[in-house]
Amino acid sequence: MLGHRGPFSCMPDSVPACRSGILAAMHDITSHTLRGVEVLSLCDAVGPMAGSLGAPVTEKFPNAAPELWPDLRIAEPTLFTSGDHWILHFHCFLLRDATGRNVLVDTGIGTASSPAADWAPVPGRLLDALADEAGLAPSDIDVVVLTHLHSDHAGGCVTDGEPVFPNARHIVQQAEVDWLARTASSPILGSVVDPLRRAGALDTLHGPLRLAEFVDLVPTPGHTPGHQSIVVDDHRLVIAGDVVLHPVQLIDPSIHYLHDENPQTAATTRTTLLNEIRTRNGLLAAPHLPHPFIELHPHHP
Ligand SMILES: [Zn+2]
Ligand SMILES: [Zn+2]
């Protein structure tokens, strides 16, 4: 095991009984090992989407059928504020491959001065979680994989212009960097990408990469153009970034997120990836879902 859980828990004290078939598949085990690859969830934060992105959750998933929400409110009440805004979890994942390398997948929301501060519950506690639950210091991280360059995933890898994980290579898709360069309003280029590049710590990919035995990086575009996911043991476990953001998308993968860059591509990617996981009776690991790992099984008519 990488370690044991510290006193902080990502989960609320009382988790309501799950009622729907899909949500009943969720559980709160925080690590899994497959083929010698260990994956541990690390809770960076839990809190509402607020500030510049604050809006009722129904507006965040505009093509969701209205009748889906009442059941979700009953099954997962901790996902809703009294004002019907969305309470997100922000999970990062630590993967230790068979050679003992420590691979951190996403870096959370970062410090109080992070680019995520205008909407997310900063500061994140990823570094505490890394120490408490895995017994690791930032210098122990060998590889950082950024699923994409949104502030809640990349905000934690640079502080005050310096890489937080000083010995790590940082892997991102070139398509993601190119998209960001076209997006004048994004602060991530200057606050994250440029410092990593200056430090010689940024590796950009053009497509898939076998990161280690049984561990593959695969492009999963749509939420952002260069979004990538981590596939372990042929979809028996997938760290899916923001391919899936909310349980409502497990009920219907065609439900898109308001801030998806290309909603149609995102829906296609989500449907395909979820089907792959279901075929393998696999585990979905997604940062914003209320439970870090979710078992998925084939649909039976
Ligand atoms: Zn995102
Ligand atoms: Zn996100």
Plain-language structure description:
This protein is α+β, with helices and mostly antiparallel strands and 301 residues long. It has one domain (23-295): Metallo-beta-lactamase, Chain A, CATH 3.60.15.10. The chain is built from 8 helices and 16 strands. The protein has a 7-stranded mixed β-sheet with strand order 1-16-15-14-13-12-11, with helices on one face. A 7-stranded mixed β-sheet has the order 2-3-4-5-6-9-10. Strands 7-8 form a two-stranded antiparallel ribbon. The radius of gyration is 18 Å and the shape is globular. The N and C termini lie far apart (38 Å). Residues 1-27 have low confidence and may be disordered. Bound molecules: zinc ion (ZN) (2 copies). One zinc ion (ZN) binds at residues 148, 150, 223, 242. This is Zn-dependent hydrolase. Keywords: Hydrolase, Metal-binding, Zinc. GO terms for molecular function: hydrolase activity; metal ion binding. Belongs to the metallo-beta-lactamase superfamily.
